[in-house]
Amino acid sequence: METVNFKGRDFLTLLDYTPEEIQALLDIAAELKDKKKKGIVHDVHRGKNIVLIFEKTSTRTRCSFEVAAHDLGIGTTYLDPSGSQIGKKESIADTARVLGRMYDGIEYRGYEQKKVETLAHFAEVPVWNGLTNEYHPTQILADFLTIREHFGRLKGINFVYMGDARYNMGNSLMIGCAKMGLNFTACAPKEYFPDAELISRCQTFAAQSGSQLRFIEDPMEATRGADVIYTDVWVSMGEPVEVWEERINALSPYQVNSALMDNAGENAVFMHCLPAYHDRMTAVGKEIGERFGRDAMEVTDEVFESPRSIVFDEAENRMHTIKAIIYATL
Ligand code: CP
Ligand code: NVA
């Protein structure tokens, strides 16, 4: 199944992976997905163990790692945001050296990218980034597998990211698109565009893949001709609740609604890494919604629930792509 050797590699950011390697991981994911659908057992890593460190909460990423590991025959230990010594009584470097002696791989979700890099430096086993403030690389593999399944290709797809483009999702999607030849547009007020240095690195990848990168403030201009309109929450995990007001003021014009989807064209799809504030059916959605008199934040319920929304295919693919990473690197 494998054309590239990934054994022992960390998976910290897509910056470390070539387009050919990303392509190979997507191919492995597609094969593993097919096996799973056909009920073909693929517990090729029987007897191994991995540890899942979550300093921030999760539904999709945690469950994907657990189910993927189980399907591959691997045992898991979940360390929740309060259930270990990490950061409070024990440094990342010491934790890495302890867990590296017991486990065959380590997943880490937390704050600064520096931490997952330190973990990878000190642990002698593969370390996988399950989300940091800066990057969310496993999500991008799921997104790209979903786009490939839907459109039959990645190259030349017009991908538009609406909203806070300077955080983990905007950064990682820009890197992924630039490497894999999707045209990437960040649409936001200019203060929310990705970091200039990262843009410049991505311009180099884009020159090689044929991707075009655009940074546009006007939503109608940005979404015209889009194949994929993607958004993420306006306030990310770990950010203070006080920033909601500033985000709502700045990003409301960038909410994904039916007018934007219609502007894109009839074949355009809606994507979101999830969780999403598309109604008031959550504690935060209700509280912030009532405070600011809004029914939804980054996407309207109408778009979220429409046939153009492929968010649950995307969520399912988290598991198949995370499985591909574990499968290939152990
Ligand atoms: N998309 C994503 O990472 O979801 P979780 O926060 O539920 O893991
Ligand atoms: N930007 C979001 C992504 C969640 C998957 C966050 O960091 O909370």
What do you see in this structure?
This protein is an alpha/beta fold and 330 residues long. It folds into two domains: 14-135 and 317-329, 3-Layer(aba) Sandwich (Rossmann fold), CATH 3.40.50; 158-226 and 228-267 and 269-307, Aspartate/ornithine carbamoyltransferase (Rossmann fold, 3-Layer(aba) Sandwich). The chain is built from 13 helices and nine strands. The chain starts with 18 loop residues before the first helix and ends with a helix. The chain binds phosphoric acid mono(formamide)ester (CP) and norvaline. Residues 131, 136, 167-169, 232-233, 236-237, 273 line the site of norvaline (NVA). Residues 58-61, 131, 139, 273-274 line the site of phosphoric acid mono(formamide)ester (CP).
- As for the CATH topology of the largest domain, it is Rossmann fold
User: How much beta, percentage-wise?
Assistant: 5-15%
Arrangement of strands in the largest sheet:
7-6-5-8-9
Query: By helix and strand content, what is the structural category?
Result: alpha/beta
- Overall number of structural domains: 2
Uncertain stretches: none
Q: Which of globular, elongated, flat, extended, rod-shaped describes the shape?
A: globular
Overall pLDDT level: 97
Bound molecules: phosphoric acid mono(formamide)ester, norvaline
Task: Write the CATH homologous superfamily of the largest domain.
Answer: Aspartate/ornithine carbamoyltransferase
Number of helices: 13
First and last CA, distance: 14 Å
Question: In angstroms, what is the radius of gyration?
Answer: 19 Å
Second-tier CATH architecture of the largest domain = 3-Layer(aba) Sandwich
The H/E string reads HEHEHEHEHEHEHEHEHHEHHH
CATH class of the largest domain: Alpha Beta
Number of strands: 9
What portion of residues is helical?
A: 40-55%
Largest sheet: 5 strands, parallel
